[in-house]
């Protein structure tokens, strides 16, 4: 698409992108993914996936719509109520929101676990280092001593004491096969995906149709605000969230515009 | 976006992508762009741009809608009537439709000219070689001895006997600034772009809202069919094409679905 080419590619640091640029968020996102590819964190196809997401975000108005905010609050409540919440990290997530995921893990006492579609030891190590540089103390996904049933490929690999035994899992930017396999294991899935029609949000208990760079900090803010909430209040927030309505509102927004 | 990750990334040749895959066209496109990046033809940001395009194509139904077919026929008529038609080639165009652009150039007696946003001698040479491997005999854009007025960056560079003096220019996947600058030079612009709201199709005489991998072969087919048509017939096809209606139909399709 043409619009992507209107800012030169020679921005070295994200601070060089003017904050008042009308497409600041999109340019920042693209720059972070590009840096991720260069660092070996993000697969080249992650650049394509991010471009795809950026078109949906453009149609969504590049803002957190009310139903997405409600989903993010419900997701925060799920994480706070969980016995063992895990935040799944792939190459795009690590490139886009490394510090923000660490903050969310801290706010909800969740584990961070790396899980890659195109898994190599080098990428796993690069992502673990990147997360630690952004404040992570423990990073799971390196052991990979358990398997998600009924799933081919490397992405079936998980940690036995991580995603395998988690009750609530945040899977941002996840592929449909894996989202379905996790759902079949009976886990409560929280999915971030900008296309409300793709399979991952369709199978999620909480589908969050929002840009991950807005969604994750907002989830952390909700979690911090709800830190002292009782179980009843958290359950009430979860009950009040209507996943069908959220998916419909997101699709309606994308289809019909503002 | 998640859906992009459902086919493994280790496809080495495009023949390995199953033709009956429901997302064959998208996978083929992504593979060609990825190969382009690896070959030094396509800038990394081209992968992002293509991903962005793929989302619009998904919403469009991944088919050439009737108004796009009409635009492609009108564009073919413009190229056939032109005194000096030029087809502009950037890194994504070269990666996606090298042979198809050569065929279109042959069918309309047009020049092929390389023009890059992120211009380097290496990329220019790689693209020229790639086009020649796909049958191109003459490739312009290497001299770069003229400039498009009122345009910064490397993309102002054009050949004096190419785009600079052309009367009709096909600019696929072009950025808005350059499309506007060419329009200001009084050229008849034919633009291929999957987002009907971006500036390039908005300023084009003929906006073609279609995937380039469908659009270019279809333009060549129209040109071949119209090879013996008289001026009157070609002018009639151009007159009958309504650019506003085409833009509206494309937006309507993207917004409301099938």
UniProtKB/TrEMBL annotation, chains A, B:
Gene3D superfamilies: Phosphopantoate/pantothenate synthetase (3.40.50.12640). Pathway: Cofactor biosynthesis; coenzyme A biosynthesis. One of its GO terms (molecular function) is ATP binding. The keyword Nucleotide-binding applies. InterPro entries: PPS/PS (IPR002855), PPS/PS_sf (IPR038138). One of its GO terms (biological process) is coenzyme A biosynthetic process. Its EC number is 6.3.2.36. Keywords: ATP-binding, Coenzyme A biosynthesis, Ligase, Nucleotide-binding. Belongs to the archaeal phosphopantothenate synthetase family. NCBIfam families: phpantohe_syn_Arch (NF041123), PRK13761.1 (NF010324). Catalyzes the condensation of (R)-4-phosphopantoate and beta-alanine to 4'-phosphopantothenate in the CoA biosynthesis pathway. Homodimer. This is 4-phosphopantoate--beta-alanine ligase. It comes from Natronolimnobius baerhuensis.
